[in-house]
Amino acid sequence: MAESPATARAQHHDDGLRVLIVDDQEVFRVGTRQVLDGDDSIVVVGEADSGAGALAMIDRLEPDVVLMDGVRGRSDIEVARQSVTQHPATRVIILAAEDDPELARQALEVGVAGYLSKTITGRELITAVQAAALGTLVLDAHVPTLLSWKPRPGGEGDVNRLTSRERQVFDLVAEGLSNKAIAERLGLSNRTVEGHVNQIFLKLGVESRTELVRLAVTRA
User: What is the reported pTM?
Assistant: First the structure.
């Protein structure tokens, strides 16, 4: 009797984070698998060379993380959107071959767990997979600058509602800095920074740092 997806997922979790690699280039899939296989916390459960194949494998394997090529642009974003919608527990990371502000923006808007460059190191990729699986939004450091976000007037998420100090804190959170790092940068206490962050959450209608970062980098 075939085991159910839920049973298979529970059993495989003991072996490590389950990762599916999606790319139409075999050489990239092989290289990525070799990198991930070098870490005991990760198990590559499959490879797909197309969006349709990826969705079928996600349905069957229920991986924790999907590493998806971003070369095909809109078609990749659509696959990511369907995966996020149909399998919210599976985290999708887009690996882009080149800087593409529109692709990055669309990816974040559909709810991917990360947007990274294919030029990242093996160690950085492993760390990103582990972080994404825990619910962290993983982004290349250059993504906020790449998008060069600009606030839109009015409505939820309007950064014009922030005070000048809150805007400073907002910008630093968007860069990925921790409260402690922000406190050191601005010469404030950790408690003061925490207070500013809480006020920013209330004013912008977000509930987490991940949502705040996503808002910042999609406001271009």
Answer: 0.66
